[in-house]
Specification:
The chain crosses the membrane at residues 435-461. The protein has helices at 2-22, 55-63, 78-87, 91-94, 112-115, 119-122, 129-135, 172-189, 203-209, 214-236, 298-305, 392-400, 429-469, and strands spanning 35-41, 65-67, 70-71, 101-102, 109-110, 140-143, 159-161, 194-199, 243-248, 254-255, 265-266, 278-285, 288-293, 312-316, 335-339, 345-346, 356-357, 371-374, 382-384, 387-388. It is α/β, with parallel strands linked by helices. Bound molecules: 2-acetamido-2-deoxy-beta-D-glucopyranose (3 copies) and zinc ion.
Length: 470
Amino acid sequence: MLLSVCVSVCVLALLMSSAVHGAPAKGPCARPRNKLLFISFDGFRWDYDRDVDTPHLDRMAEEGVRAAYVTPPYLTITSPTHFTLLTGRYIENHGVIHNMWFNISTQEKKQYYMTQFVDDYWDNGTLPIWITAQRQGLKAGSLHFPGTAATYQKEEVGVKQVEPFLYDHSNETDWRLNVDRVVGDWFARRDLDLVTLYFGEPDKTGHKYGPDTPERRAMVQTVDRTVGYIRHAIQSHGLTERLNVIITADHGMTTVQRGAGANEIILSKIPGFSFRDIKFHLVDYGPSGMLLPREGMLEKVYSALKGAHPHLHVYKKEDMPERLHYAKHPRILPIILWADPGYVINGLFPVQFNKGEHGFDNEVMDMKPFFRAVGPDFRRGLQVGGFETVHIYPLMCHLLGITPEVNDGSLHVTKHMLLNADDQECQTTDESVHWNLMVGFAAVGGLLLVMFVVMTTWTTCKRRRMESYR
Ligand SMILES: *[C@@H]1O[C@H](CO)[C@@H](O)[C@H](O)[C@H]1NC(C)=O
Ligand SMILES: *[C@@H]1O[C@H](CO)[C@@H](O)[C@H](O)[C@H]1NC(C)=O
Ligand SMILES: *[C@@H]1O[C@H](CO)[C@@H](O)[C@H](O)[C@H]1NC(C)=O
Ligand SMILES: [Zn+2]
């Protein structure tokens, strides 16, 4: 009788111990991995939906997350800010410091498109998210996104489409073909985990006509229709519950002052300044510029320009305001110039005729893009405040369940956008290591406890048995 009690207690203890060991690890990592579509509509300013009907963007906001705005890194131009989206690093840290590649010894310059193919310009020690995802076993693709053409540490994004030279970035029919390719072919058929998708509008229209024009408003409606088309494509391929979508942009746009009253910035007209003192320059490129003075000429050039125009800011590289994070990289030239909103920097004479420009200080509200997100991991109908775009990268890594590279962002800034906000520790290395350790300790602890129970029970039973013999 007592023996059978002892046996049942022992069996129970054994069952309990196996239950401890066999319990599924019902912790953070129970969440399934969803796919991610990351979209940039070039130059879509944070407030572009305020004076236009945007039913599809509105619906996306109701079903997902909408930020008041996001703050791009300085310099607020296309390639540098897109590479920040892909890496989570400030521009001085990732090294893609301009849309143009240049060589200060040969004076050679390459425009935006040709620069896309200069591998060692992009591959300057920071890996874009595609490569990191691929190294951790995921499949990545990119369509027209800046940086797509380049090779990084001998790897390239696995599935890519680079736009041809002189591509028409404004053709809505082409946009839909691109969406069909990404959603139908790349996600649904080829099962990619991450795709970055780029549209060259409303930037082009904003430059040409200015941001406060009927043309820009019409283009925003085209963008909105495209958002509707994208969400419909996702739905009809049955991907809605498995695909997160983030839509943002690289920078905003502001109107350039024109006409008789406009006090234009023309460097050659500034007393005491001469291009003969300059070894290499990058001007006539919107509101920013960089100068490399000839040997011994730095102070002369600097003092001629500093304070010479009420809307021109002149900085030595080492004196740049730290908040701009645009000084440390060796590619940045010794003198940096930028203009107040509405002004552009001309060299010898005015050669810039865009009605809209970007490239200004990233604190200027007109430089800030929009941000929207929707999908299985995002909360619904949530409005959040503004945040810096460096924080988007850790969010994307978290959504994909990959370990991020070193970056300047933080998941803490964006994690409140996610469902199961208490399950955040899953994917970040340190914390998942901690979790594994905890599970390990729990298992070992459980085993010890069981052994203790078994031993004690056994001893007790034995004693009881001996006592009964007495
Ligand atoms: C610039 O050109 C010089 C001379 O051809 C070359 O030695 C140097 O490596 C080039 N620099 C870059 C950044 O390509
Ligand atoms: C980054 O570029 C700079 C200047 O072009 C160069 O000196 C440096 O070696 C590059 N770093 C890496 C890791 O590619
Ligand atoms: C727009 O793109 C489509 C598909 O590539 C093409 O057939 C059409 O000719 C283009 N339209 C214009 C106006 O270029
Ligand atoms: Zn752009």
